[in-house]
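Researcher: I'd like a structural prediction for the single chain below. Treat it as a standalone chain; there are no partners to consider.
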Amino acid sequence: MDLETFRAAVQDPSTWPALTTDFADAGKRVAYYNDGTSTFYAVTETASVIRPLWLLTMARGKAKALKGVAVATNYAASLNDRSASETGIMQLTLDGMPTISKPDPKSLVAPRGSIYRISLGQRLRDALANQFKVPAGVTMVVDDIQSFTASVKGDSGYTTAGTRTVHRLYLAAAYILLHKKHTTSSKDGVVAIVADKTGNIVSWGMKNPLVSCWHGETSALMRLGGSLSAGGCVFSTLKPCKMCAGLIFDASAGGTKAYYGQEDAGSDAQDTKLDKARLGAALDAHKGNGVPRGLVVATPEKKALGETLKAGFEAQKGTGIKNPIEYITSDAAAGLMAATEQALKQKITKYKATGPSNPNTKRAVEYLVEFLRLQGVSPE
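Model: Treating it as a single chain, here is the predicted structure.
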């Protein structure tokens, strides 16, 4: 989807009376601006985690679209009043900030030109659902996806079925999708999978370089209307940037954890809302440090995938590819992606065999195989 198609999917013609009625409604948040020829406004319920400034920034036509523009809201008197997600998307995607004011609703003056209302409407959500398919129904993979308990194995099998090795399977699925769905010469190298409390995949997304707000994580959350149930996890191939971290945090009121495969040393991914809330962590084969087990791949010796990707990227950065989004889809990382797929294949083979097995891991492997098949990818 290109930018113009995206904008057409999120905006609808409206009227000045509709805008002013919403602006005066204490149960709604509203923001609007005029670009000289048209007025764009967004409205959300006060209980919504998606706020109008996020929507207006999402739908603007270019990076400088809001630079120095006067934005009127009925809920934010200045830039200091933005939510974490509004702050993140504006910092990341705008080339220059607007001015923000909170005028009296009675003082609003009708502008010239057409008026458009911006929303995460059904057209966009349907398009994302069609592109990023998820299994129908609800599957209970684990009791609690945020848990990472250890397994205890006795002479006759598992006396305690742990969950600390489940998370890396979701991350492996994300890397496999990235590798299989990548479009040559496209800077689309981020995939994020969203799982609910019981491990059921409710959404996933992949970076679209044609739309600046369409990252792996944000596209997955836009498909859900910007709302997440507490207790779930986001599994991303790359550390969420400030925009994505802010939306993940706001979407579940801090009730979602984010696990990622590769660190991002860029300034856009430093000191994010998830960092501050300690809700994000790299899955890098950690043991005993408060995070689930990470991905280990054989290339040719067993090493943590995240550390290996980081080392490979840093080693060539001075003379080669400048950012991890392009590096992950390059020939230099192809061997690691193949090794990641092979690691999942080994799990599939292991859990097809008879004998004692961890039921949590077994269910996760079987579920993720079906999920990947739904995307036209067969990891077997």
